[in-house]
Amino acid sequence: MKALFTVVLASALSFSSLAASASEDLKALSTVHSNYKKISVTLTEGLGKATISILDADGKSLSSRNVRVKKENMMVPYDLKNLPAGEYQVKIETGAEQVIYTVETKDKPVATEALPLMASVKIVDNNTVNLSVMGLEEAGVDVKIYSKVSDEVIYTDHIIQAEGFRKDYSFSKMNVSDIYFIVTDSQGRSKTFNF
Q1: What are the angstrom distances between the C-alpha of 98 and each of 26, 29, 64?
Q2: 3-class secondary-structure state, position 173
Q3: pLDDT tens figures, 93-144
Q4: How far is C-alpha 12 from the chain's CA centre?
Q5: Which residue segments constitute the domains of the chain, with CATH numbers given?
Q6: By the 8 A CB rule, do 145 and 181 touch?
Q7: Distance between CA 95 and CA 56 in Å, rounded?
């Protein structure tokens, strides 16, 4: 009885080490990388037939693809731009072997230059306008005020204030409806205000 138990235990251990070895072999023949919302799966030459599956964090299959890797390495790209940023799994299966990679996707940051200038105006009274500018990366904003009648610049202002500012502009001989503003920051982003 003791000998039978020893044989069963030895068989179980050798089978589990064989399964672990197979999984390690597949891991050695594959790599997975993510860059923002793009995932690339690289399979090494000679791997043969494989199934690549993209799974969500709960293990639900989102995509599955069968490939055959022959005499050269194969790179299989996935673009997850239409899915939310977060954790995903990449499952690679070949016959009895299986390996699962966990990857994290994230949104690509938006360059500041691509964002609009955050500026707003509020009419205080018939002769006064309050200008607010916020979210500046660099100090320096040019304000040009034009006459609607002549399209000429009637006033310019250069404000060197980090992050943002708020300022009133008053006109004793003109009504707010007779002017318009063009506000430009140091990065060249511009906004026009008509009243």
Answers
A1: 7, 12, 14
A2: coil
A3: 998 899 999 999 999 887 766 788 899 999 999 999 999 999 888 889 999 9
A4: 46
A5: 29-105 (2.60.40.3080), 112-194 (2.60.40.1930)
A6: yes
A7: 23
